[in-house]
Amino acid sequence: MKKIFKKLSEKFITITRGNAEISKTREVSPSPIREILPQKIASDSLVCPYCASKKFVKRGFRQKKLERVQLLLCLECNKTFTPHSVKGKHYPLATIFDAVSFYNLGYSLEESCRKVGLGTDSKVGIGASTLSNWLHEFKDRMPFLRMRDFAMQKYSPANMVVTATLAHRQLYRYRFHQAKCELIMQEHFHHQTFKPLKEFLEMVPGECPHQYFSAKNMGEDISRASESPLFFSKTAMIVRGKENYATMIAKFVLQSVKDRKSRHEALQKFFLYNDSVTVATEVPVYLTREDIEHMQSQLGFEVYRPSAEVEKADLMDVSNGLPKLITGHIDFLQIRNGMIHILDYKPKAEKEKPIEQLTLYAMALSRLTGLRLFEFKCAWFDEKDYFEFYPLHLLHKPKRAQRRKKIDTQEGTYLVNKTVEKVESLRPI
Questions:
Q1: Is residue 222 domain-shared with residue 116, that is, in the same domain?
Q2: 259 close to 340: Cβ distance less than 8 angstroms
Q3: Domain membership flag for residue 361
Q4: Dist CA 178 CA 146 (whole Å)
Q5: Same domain? 238 vs 362
Q6: Distances in Å between the alpha carbon of 255 and those of 40, 42, 139, 228?
Q7: pLDDT digit string, tens, across residues 209-235
């Protein structure tokens, strides 16, 4: 009888999968049956650490002293594992990341421990020595540590990062690391030309035209960059695919995220507070019809409106059909290697190709700061892949330039894209 009941229970759990109740805190309801069916795992690239299989199911939780960890059962090797690659930690990973982030903001070890809500007077408080050990263990993932002492000479912990909540159809948390931005510009002489960018980022909280982003003003002639009807020719360009610091940190940080809706916030906070190149997150940008017309007529940029079936012969010039306004928010803004990098986190990045969206971001930021477009790079990434391209290669097509068929890079040799409507390959041949 018990065996029959057990089989019926397992059958019921399988049938009701995806209907687990979630509270306001995004925790799974305490029902003994539905408890093993929380929302989806935050990382889309998670595989079994034993056999690298992507076929697994949830198998309840492991209750630790300070947190409850999701258990997963691999359907290939029949072994149980957790989404965490960092093992043996008494404290939740989210608490660890918050503690090291507060320290990199300029707070002392003791102050950082109190800031995370588990002060030294608490029974589960973090000791300064524990935080010091975390800093030493994860120093390779926190290059800002080498800049921290220099940033503290001019900025207090409260003034190191400028924050503002922007009510643009939904709430966006804008953050600008002014200490890091200043240090980056001092470190490399070429970065001095990016002072207009620094001035723009400083003015966002007070000077941003919030009415452009209001839901009341979003009509047919006003669109978001991710939904814009504009189209760019993909010929004579390449998209480089690689793995770098961004993919490593995404994989590292997403272990601490329990809710998929919190992925962007967790990544933005860790990048901004702990890396050495991210200067701002959720940067609001906009592009007017007059801006696009100027880029077309004066700079010779090619902007099109695609027909129902996108073909080279069917592309239509948008001189008379430009949207009145295009708005958007840049996920990550970085300054490194003499370039301004515009980054967007996209789960399952290999299937996504937000080329138009990122190019519009670059056009808007170039127009708002007065910086030339060849100083920008765009990229989208997840915890597995990082794809980057030059937005100028989409907009400017020199007629006399020599048409190369192959381009050699550190990752390998890429074929220059020949089709108009899509990028044929994201990987080197």
A1: no
A2: no
A3: yes
A4: 16
A5: yes
A6: 13, 8, 18, 33
A7: 888 887 565 555 678 888 888 889 888
Contact assessment for residue 235 and residue 367, using Cβ atoms and an 8 Å cutoff: no
238 lies in which domain range?
161-415
Residue 74 near residue 56 (C-beta atoms within 8 A): yes
- Contact of 344 with 306, CB cutoff 8 Å: no
pTM exceeding 0.85:
no
Q: Are residues 77 and 178 in the same domain?
A: no
Strands 240-242 and 386-389: antiparallel
**For the CA atoms of the chain, what is the radius of gyration?**
24
Looking at the fold, whether 118 and 229 belong to one and the same domain comes out as: no
User: b/e map of 294-317 (b: 16 or more CB within 10 Å)?
Assistant: ebbeeeebbbbbbeeeeeeeebee
Kindly indicate the confidence band of residue 173, based on its pLDDT and cuts at 50, 70 and 90.
very high
Locus of tokens 């190709």: 353
Q: Are residues 346 and 281 in the same domain?
A: yes
Alpha-carbon gap, residue 424 to 417, rounded angstroms: 6
In this structure, is residue 149 part of a structural domain? no
Q: What is the pLDDT of residue 218?
A: 54
Contact 118, 225 (CB under 8 A): no
User: For residue 357, what is the enclosing H or E element?
Assistant: helix 355-369
